[in-house]
Amino acid sequence: MLDSLHPNTAGGTAAADASTFPLLLLQHARLRATEPAYREKHLGIWQTTDWATTAAEVRALACGLAALGFKRGMNLAVIGDNRPRLYWAMAAAQCLGGVSVPLYQDAPSADMAYVMDDAEIEFAVVEDQEQVDKLFEIKGSLPRLAHIVYEDERGMRNYDQPALTAYAALQEIGRAYDRAHPEFFMNAVKAGAANDVAIMLYTSGTTGKPKGVCQTHRAMMAAATGGAAFDKLTAADEVLSYLPMAWVGDNLFSYAQALVTGFTVNCPESGETVMNDLREIGPTYYFAPPRVFENMLTSVMIRMEDASAIKRSMFHHFMAVARRVGSDILDRKPVGMLDQLQYALGAVLVYGPLKNVLGLSRVRVAYTAGAAIGPDLFRFYRSIGINLKQLYGATETCAYVCLQPDGNIKFDSVGLPAPGVEVKIADNGEVLVKSAAMLSGYYKRPDATAEVIDADGYFHTGDAGMFDDEGHLKIIDRAADVGKLVDGHIFAPNYIENKLKFFPFIKEAVAFGNDRDHVCAFINIDIEAVGNWCERRGLPYSGYTDLASKDETYGLIAECIAKVNADLATEAMMSGTQVHRFLILHKELDPDDDELTRTRKVRRKFVGEKYAVLIAALYSGQTSQYIETQVKFEDGRKGMVAADLKIRDVSTYPATKQAA
Predict the structure, then answer these.
(1) Strand ranges across the sheet with 45-50
(2) Is residue 201 part of a domain?
(3) What pLDDT, in 10s, does the model give residues 465-474?
(4) Has residue 614 got a pLDDT over 90?
C-alpha cells in the first residue's frame, strides 16, 4: 500500500490506496525521501526539511504524545504562526487517530477558552511563550487541559509548571517510546480510516458562537485531489504558507494539497516579513484573501504617487493597455498585432517589474477566496499577466465548491462547479451544495448539523446566488444580508462594499440600506495610503482619528464614492443603490473589538447595534454626530475613543445603460 503513489495524468499526484494523511506522508517519505517538503526562514536563512526527515519528526512527536497519554479520538489544539513543526503536530495527532484543532494565533485568551472548552482539549502544541501565557491565563477554566507543548524555547527558561513540555524534549521521549514499542507507530497509522475525522475547524462566529466543523480524511482529500487535478499541480510547485492555520484555506492549500501532490510548503519568518519572503521564494502557487490583494494594490499606488512624472505617465499608459487587452492575452484570445506589441513592451517596462516587486513573477496559479473580490481589483491582476482566479467554498465544504477554469474566467462569477460537486439554487435563491468534500457534522451539535444539511444531503451555504447562461455561479451576498430598499431595488451590501474597497484609500466599508430610502455607508480609511496622500500635500496629522476627521480626507473619500456611484448607475439591478451619505469612522474596525471576525469579515449585525447612533444620524440628515467607543488594547486593557464625526452627502447619478 505504501507504494501506491503515482503521477496523475492531469498533472498532480494521486494516492490510489492511501486513505489518510499519515499514509500519504509515509508514501512521500519512501518515494520522494530527499525531495524538499518544508522550508522555514529562521534568522534570515531558509532551512529545508525533506520528506524522509519530516516523516521521522512526525513519528517521534506522535510517539511522544502517546507516551504522555494521547489516544485515538482525542483532539489536539495547535496554536501559532505557520511553522513546519506545527504542521507536523497536526500530522502526529492524525497518526494516532486523533483530530487536529488549529486555533487563530492572534485570538485573545477568552476566545481561545471557548474553543478549547468546546473541543474538550487535553493536549495543546503551541508556538512560543506568548501562546503559553495565553493558555495559563485561562487554564483555570479548562480543567481538561493537562499538557502544553511549546515549540520555541526562547523566554521559557524560568517556566517550571508540570503541564509544560518542550517540543524537542517530547520528541526525545517519543524516540525512546518508539524504541521500546517498535510496532506501535505503524499499527496506529494502519488503524486509521478514511472516514475518521482528521481536522476540526471552528467557524468564524459571524452570526453566533463558533462551531467545530468536523472534516474527515476522505473529505479533505477529495477537495485536495480535485483541486490539484483541476489546476495541474505537481510536486514541483511551491506555496507560501502564511495565512492562519485555523482557516480552512490554509488547511486545504498548505496541508491537504501538499500531502496529495508532494509540493513544497514555505513558511515565512514572521508576519512582518511575509512580503519580503514572498519575493525570495517566488511561489508558483499562491493564495490570498481579497484583503491581501487590496493591500498589494494600495502599496503599488502609493509607490506610483511618489514616482517621477515620467514613470507615472508610463505606468498609466501601459496600465490602460493592460486593462484593454491584458486579460484576453492571458486567456489566449485573439488580440490585434499593435496591441500585442504594446503589451509586450509594457511587460518589459511595467508588468514584469511590478510582478517582481509583488513577489508574483513565478506564479502559475493564484487564487482568492474568503470574501467576494471586486471585479476591478480582479481585472487589475489578470491584466498584468497574473493568473488570478476565484474559488468558492466554505469551511463546511473544505473550501471546495466552484473553481474558475483557465481560459474561461468571468470577473463577476466564482466559476463552474468543481469536479465532483453538485450545486443548485433553492427557490429562495440560496446556494445548495452536495459533494464528497463536506463536513461530517458540527462537533457535539447534531441540531446545528441538521439545520444546514437537508434530507437530500445538500449543504445550505447561506449565500444567495444565481447561475448565468453558461453555468457560472454568481454570488450576490450572504442570503441573510440581501435586502431591499423601500422602492424595491435589491440591496446587496457586500457588492457595494467591494466596489468601495477597490480604492487604495478605503480599507473597510459597511453599507446600510435595507428597508431604507437610500444607501449610506461607514468608511474606514487606509492610514498608510491616505497618510501618504496628505503628506505629499503638506497636511499634518497626529494619528488615525485626526486623519479621518480632516476635510481634505472627506473630500478624497467623497470622490471615490462618487466614482462608485457612477459605476453603479450603469448597472440596471444596482443603479438605485448608490451611496447617498457617508461618514468616516474614528477608529478602525477590529476583531479584538468584535467588529470583525478573525478572517476579517464584518460582523454586520454587531456593528449595526454598536453604532446605531451613527446610523440614525446618517438617515436623519445630521451633519455630525458625537460618539464614545470602548476599545480593547493589545495588552488586554480597555479604553475609550471619542470623536465628533462629520457626515457628508455624495453625488449620485441617474441610471444609464452601460456602453457595449
Answers:
(1) 45-50, 36-42, 264-267, 238-240, 285-287, 365-368, 388-392, 402-403, 416-417
(2) yes
(3) 889 889 999 8
(4) yes
